[in-house]
Amino acid sequence: MIFKSLFLVSVAVFALNEAASANTCTDAMYKIFVAQKTYAYPESKFQIDSVYTYEYWYESANKEEYKSETIQNHIINDGKLEQITIEEKAKTVNQNNPDLSEERLDQNTTYFYHDTNETVLKNVERELIISDCKTNDNLCYIQNAYHKGKKLGEIKTKINESNNYTGIEICAYSSTDNNEYPKALTEYFLKKDTVIEQETAYYNADSVQPNIPKKYVADPTDDLKCYRIVEVYSVSGKDTIHYEYQADETYIYRPYAKGFSIKKYYKNESSVDKEERYTETFVIDSKAKTSLRKNRKPVKIAPKARYFDLLGRYKFTK
Question: For 16-25, how does the pLDDT look when each residue is reduced to its tens digit (9 = 90+)?
Answer without folding.
Answer: 444 445 689 9
